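Re: beginner question about structure tokens

> Can someone show what the tokenized structure looks like for a real chain? I only ever see the sequence side.

Sure, here's an example I had lying around. Input first:
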Amino acid sequence: MRETLFNWLGQDLTGRRCLDLFAGSGALGFEAASRGASEVVMVESDRIAFRALQENCRKLACSNIMLRCEDGPGFARRQEGGRYDVIFLDPPFQSGYLPQVLPLLADRLAEDGLVYAETGEAFEPDAAWEVVKRARAGKVYYQLLQKVQDS
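And the corresponding structure tokens:
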């Protein structure tokens, strides 16, 4: 799935700002950083996972990654940190966070920005979002979304 995602994004993320809102292991954020993203903000509330992210950042000497140990929805509600070109949303599948945070991210997304969403069941975004691409791998559904532009 990660390979498909980065094929969709065009492989090179040079100069792009990325947000990994439910970072977990940090796989998506580290991948974005390795593909030239100018900044990757990883948000993770689990302290054990956060410490692992810190250690991995230290080992990899990642100067383009900023770590935040906090709740993903809480981070999304605050309008700080500017806009992002790519936002990765891979919340815990049973959390119900996706429909809660997606509307909060519309103002956090750059004009041509994209949101990658991963879920354990089919998810249909509301009319404010356009599905750019979508796929399924086993029991995981994933899609790339873009804000619908006002005419």
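Each token stands for a local structural state, so reading them left to right follows the chain. The CA atoms of residues 52 and 59 lie 10 Å apart.
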